[in-house]
Amino acid sequence: MMKLLSSVALLVLAALLGGCQQSPAALPVVSMKIGNQTFHLEVAATPESQETGLMKRDGMPEHHGMIFVFPQDEVRNFWMKNTRFPLDIVFLNSGGVVVSIRQMIAYDESLTSSDSPARYAIELNKGAAAAAGLKVGDTLAIPEPAKLK
Question: Could you tell me how far CA 124 lies from the centroid of its own chain?
């Protein structure tokens, strides 16, 4: 009987742990409302994590993404070197206002610019920004853990 209870407990624990989302890059993860949906975003706040971004991954779960956090607003440029799947990129200024939304093609090494100064960049699966109803001029609440102090 004890062995059966132990087996059941292990199965329940495995099922619970299987539902947990962890960043493949061991980065902190925050939940953020973007448009009419909530996304789980890995926080890339160091030069190393920003340089790597979503490179060399085969995909990303729905409603997941990455938020890049910079110390100040300036025009930002991103590329898709070694990124295997297409993305939306949402640029926001320090007030959380969406200044531009672009789509990026897998492996494309040309620069995608924010055009206007931005402090944050959020990468989502291609089409996710439109599906969430996001548009330029919207204001998003940046979660405290994603803000540089």
Answer: 6
